[in-house]
Specification:
Length: about 450
Amino acid sequence: MRAAIYEKYGPPEMVRVAKIKKPVPKDDEVLVRVHATSVNSGDVRMRSLNVPKGFGIFVRAAFGIFAPRNPVLGMEFAGTIAAIGRDVTNFKVGDEVFSSCMFGAHAEYRVAKQDGALALKPENLSFEEAAALSFGGGTALFFLKEKGKIKHGDKVLINGASGAVGVAAVQLAKHFGAEVTAICSAGNAELVRSLGADMVIDYAEEDFTQNGEAYDIIMDNVGNAPWSRARGSLTPTGRLLLVMAGMVQMLQAVFVSRKKGRQALAGTPMDSAKTLQFLSKLAEEGKLRPVIDKVYPLEEIVAAHAHVESGRKQGSVVITLKPGKSHHGKTKKGKLNEHEDKTLNIVGNRDVEYGLCRCSFTICSGNSRGTGGFCWWHSHYSTHVVWCDKNSIPAGHDLFVAGFETQGKPLGKHYCRCDNHYIRCGRGIAHAALYIHRNCRGLVHAGDYLACLEIAGV
């Protein structure tokens, strides 16, 4: 099977795609055909050994002194069960699942214990979205609920609110009834507001420790709000959650914390089936949605590592694994269309052809209903494509899409609803959910990489 491996610690270029042995499930395990996984901060830290201060020697001892013992990274994945062990009763072949794991997910197949951190995929999420649910969601839930004891009415400050953990923390804190202040860059402010943040602080313009506010919970996802800096912004019983804590901070947390006073709390999340089922339920109810910054095919995993390492991502970076060679941005002959990177101006119904990819578009604004788009790539994949112009779809209105076909088979009606900034679509087509930013000007997709995407410069 194909997998992304690294045999030395170092920069993103240490990762390469290679053939490795396909795993065989034990009696109590399932074998999952991985459709999507993610590259997150944990993968980057392990690949580069850029771990919190004081942990380097322990990480090397645990994972490999001079080289990694397990060459396959990846801490979460989503896919379809391909085989089961003889003692497995909780799942069956064909089940769509998602999971968190201690690495090994950047491969076409991954085994998982039936009673481990494995759950059925939310029906309204694509594999790509489900693969971005457990790492950020599980980490945020662990710190807010288990460590922070969050309760209704708490004032919560989330430092680093636009990363994988941050976007989940904003939504979970709102779910638990908290008043949420989010710290991020000005460019990410609109995103975190759309997730429910009551207030947003631009870290380049304001120091939260100087605003005179006191918080019941401060969640530090960045590592720049230690006890010495943040304690003055806590209420008398406030909790500082050290998600990115070094050894000194973790030891300090033990000494400064008081049972009836301010506390600094650190720890290591350990996901379970119960955790994933809770996250899945919230996702199905529309209370928790993964935010995906970019999607890369497995062959471009080096670029994915580099993007995550830059620290400039929103939410998660997802890797897709599809059988055979990726056609990302290429025609059948492997050449980009001559219209690549041009912004299109399509209004109303219009058909456009780009080599092998022919797309039909409709703008639906207000409560109007119209035919959506369809697109096919070499007659094998079908994906939903919609043209979105600035402010064309007001908040709270529905977009109706119908007429999807995959190799001539209708897939039925497909309803979408938009909030202030994003359109969210339910299940209806292959891997089938879609986010469209209201300010976008180009083609967007719900699943497969197609030439149309690249041509539109999205």
